[in-house]
């Protein structure tokens, strides 16, 4: 009871700390402190520039524009909502953005009003020095600075990573200094440099420090989610510096020759710095792959068992025939004869399958890619079909899987092997140095993954490769299994090979032609329940659509209604989704009048089944849209998504135009201003 009381008291104190009554004075004090800092710097530099203590008309004109730009910068960057309890990273990022916006509006004002008689150097100095002073003000007054650990501790760097990051900082700073000296400082004697060039040079270094801190440039191996994300961090860093310097040059009306010197210095620095980053960190950053999903051994219960006699026993193992309680020799045969050299593989099978339920006379274990070894005397002959040869080496893979399916009785199990493409990469790393391995893998990727997927090059590939050692993803391998009429029971990785168990029981519906091109069509539910084919940029591996049920049963949904840990989406696919590139081809459906601009999302039958029956029927009465209400409400669970759609449809029935306009504006605000993402 006492503990509960203490918790309640602590909760009350915490609420009091963040209550509007307490926050409002802090926001006001922060705002006035910021205005005071910039007023002081502005007046000081004005007096220094004029070398006299008087106020001219130019002073009041420039001061008015300066304060107006400061307010715009504070408002759009949300600096006015900062409090001293915020994290320093957020504070510095906000201050940096506010200064950039302030400078942008000042530039616009000076261009529109054609103000050229006012010296811009002291105004720029006011922003530059004000940013530095304001940063120190927040750092020194930050009430959480004692609780917040140092930057190194905060990101939990190891000793090795710390040494590497310090090396990166020193070398990167040296590279920046060398380029600034050669391209800028070295030319001071031969060019007409003024105070504004030195100010701009100082801004480069301040921007370098703040940008590095806010983007985590020097610790990519710790904060990056993968190589693509690490590259994104570096690009953001360089763009921040270059954008601010270019805008500053425009505002200061820098001489063209001197401007080229600055641009050349930053361009050269960015190139060499990025090469240094690749050299130091390229082999330290781990890509997010489907590997964590491979080793799970948590087979889910099938929603629709193949036959009443097939299912799971108490141990979670798949049982072929519940009546077969008599000990079979199949387990001994597998362990001590067929899989004698594959102890770990046998252990996996014994975990997934109740081996004693299979008849050894109706089981086959091979290690072959010869089509002659697959065909049985007659169809429906085997209860268990094991082939230890990887799918990558099977000629005409889909035909091979269909042949295996034909050999199995209903409820029969196919155990096979697959070498996913990321394990291919890991094998190269084991046998070669990092750079040699990546060079080899690059050509391997082009030949064995790109060539087979393009209409023109695939004929060349199949003519020379004979379909051996194909590079396929885990998602594609499992997708082909499901497409060919199997249900995946389980899978596990052993020595860089994924072994899977799949039961014959799914339906096989042939697709006339698969498209591997960047733009593809997905079958979705349109108005009145009619099927439509929605165009999208490919962000998933081929055949991924066939394992949607498998992904849902194993991983469920995450916040926002997306599938959790969806290994069907590669790194470039996640980037496409993050930038909303993948949905651009849906404009084709809009032109074809299959979609309207705002409306419920076009979804698959499987996803539609997650909704309530009532809502399923109701949403079929409406035409789907390009911009769904999801982007306006940003719901997190499937229940919240359904509620969001219900609210939209209720409002749409009353006033279609007003509702679509309102939801479109909210969606744009979430996407562009609040930077919300659907994936």
Task: Give structural notes.
The protein is α/β, with parallel strands linked by helices and 679 residues long. It folds into three domains: 24-281, no CATH class; 292-420 and 472-504, Rossmann fold, CATH 3.40.50; 519-673, no CATH class. The protein is 55% helix and 10% strand. The strands form four sheets. A five-stranded mixed beta sheet has the order 3-4-5-7-6, sandwiched between helices. α4 runs antiparallel to α8 and α16 packs antiparallel against α17. The longest helix is centred in the N-terminal third of the chain and has 31 residues, at 20-50. The protein is elongated. Mean pLDDT is 78; it is low at 1-24, 145-155, 289-293 and 295-309.
Strand content: 5-15%
Tell how many strands the DSSP assignment holds.
11
Give the helix tally: 27
> What is the 3D form?
elongated
Q: What is the CA-CA span between the terminal residues?
A: 43 Å
Roughly what percent helix? 55-70%
Low-confidence blocks of residues: 1-24, 145-155, 289-293, 295-309
What is the SS-derived class? Answer: alpha/beta
Q: Over all CA atoms, what is the radius of gyration? A: 32 Å
Q: Main sheet, how many strands, which sense, barrel?
A: 5 strands, mixed
For the largest beta sheet, what order do the strands appear in spatially? 3-4-5-7-6
| Overall tally of structural domains | 3
The mean pLDDT is: 78
